[in-house]
Amino acid sequence: MGLGRLVPVSLGLALLFTVLGGAMVYLDSVFEEVPDFLWYVIFALLALVLMIIAIYINITKRIRRIQKRIEESGVDTMQGSSRTMTLDKLEEAIGEWTAKQARVVQELESREEFRREYMGNVSHELKTPIFNIQGYILTLLDGAKDDPKIAARFLKRAAKSVDRMTSLIKDMDVLSKVETGQYDIRLEPVQLNLLIEDTLQGVESYARKNDAKISVDFQVDERIDVLCDSARIEQVLDNLIVNAIKYSDDNKKVKIKVQDLESKVQISIKDNGFGIPEKDLGRIFERFYRVDKARSRDAGGSGLGLSIVKHIIDKHNQTITVTSKDGKGTTFKFTLNKA
Ligand code: ADP
Fold this sequence. Notes:
alpha+beta, 7 strands, Heat Shock Protein 90, Helix Hairpins
């Protein structure tokens, strides 16, 4: 009890005992035949009953106050049952409230951890190209600019670093838009063979430059309609095909297969490349996760491509899986609903 409440409580008790004592003295004089000790017992009992009532009122008020504060945090303390809040219910509500607070703290901690990791990755990814560009510019200023051949070489390298930053920033932009729902997926019937043809046209020059052969095998009617956002699925196919080429050595072969799965179709993209070691398979859809960091960066990869692919497929309520044999090749499979 705080000092501030000690004074009114003491005064209240003094008043109570004075009134009760006065009443007892008065009653003792009226009913003289009643023995004195009985008046003491009655006095003590009355005082006890009045104190119990006061304590009860005080506890009820406090329960109400706690209940109100718990309800303000969004926990329903009554759960549709009777209006009175018993101690059992209060205990239950406090339990629920504590669990809710623990969840909120955990969520905040994991967001903070994610933010820290993401910022660390982004700055790490940007650091290398920026330092490279800085180095090339300083070398040019130091005299390399006077030799046209060397100058051209350094400028080309600087341009490559700029490309790397541009692709990273573009991918980060796409990923954040997909994650925050700014890229809402508009599902419409799309003829699958046309969608694949469009994608192949887009990757044609990259495939030619890398001497890669791409084949398509339809095991369903080619003109089948699927329900999807065509621009986004083109992005998925593009990403998977470019990766299939990027992570393969000579004699690059990419096989696209479309299979029937009753209400769905399954599209697989298979390569004969380096493959992905078993230990990395579960992590390749994570942001910035790379199996061979040097090779990915050298090929201009941002490490975000597969996270974008996974998000797009998730937004379609579909699944994507990967199987791979280290050194033999990799197959990505994803599904789409038939229209
Ligand atoms: P990146 O920009 O590095 O290509 P991705 O998110 O597209 O990023 O891919 C993540 C990592 O997964 C790549 O760095 C690579 O190590 C691995 N990977 C993706 N596709 C393939 C593939 N077809 N074959 C082998 N490794 C792959």
